Amino acid sequence: MQVRPLGDRVLVKLVQEQERTQSGIYIPDTAKDKPQTGLVVAVGDSEDIKVKEGQKVLFAKFAGTEIKIGNEDHLILSSDDILAMVED
Predict the structure, then answer these.
(1) What GO CC terms are in its UniProt record (predicted)?
(2) CA dihedral defined by 20, 25, 31, 35, rounded to 10 degrees?
(3) 20-68: pLDDT as tens digits
(4) Residue in 38, 69, 70, 68 with CA at minimum distance from that of residue 54
(5) Are the beta carbons of 79 and 8 closer than 8 angstroms?
(6) Terminal Cα-to-Cα distance of the chain (whole angstroms)
(7) What sign does the CA torsion over 24, 39, 69, 36 have?
(8) CATH number, span 9-18+26-86
(9) pTM of the full predicted structure?
(10) Burial state string for 26-54 with b = 16 or more CB within 10 A and e = fewer than 16
């Protein structure tokens, strides 16, 4: 299945947080926060979008609509919900 967002929307693949602490303790799924970073997979056709495919972004905590494509979690959100670009 291929998804192409419309307008000022962005499709983001969620990036999972580390599964254990620096000291080696595993964090159960129930204690993890919802991820706030993701990789841009596709962008809509609006000229106002400032991110491009392949960029890592930080977005608002409860933004967007979660969808599952294959076995991976994705998020469709408005470009206004993207707070920053993450550079490694």
Answers:
(1) cytoplasm
(2) -10
(3) 667 777 766 565 566 688 999 999 998 888 999 999 999 988 889 999 9
(4) 38
(5) yes
(6) 30
(7) positive
(8) 2.30.33.40
(9) 0.80
(10) eeeeeeeeeebebbbbbbbeeeebeeeee
Residue 40's DSSP bridge partners are 12
Q: CA-to-CA distance for 56 and 87, rounded, in angstroms?
A: 7
Q: Could you tell me the pLDDT band of residue 18, with boundaries at 50, 70 and 90?
A: low
Report d(CA 29, CA 80) in Å as an integer. 29
Q: Compute the residue count for the chain.
A: 88
Residue type, 7: G
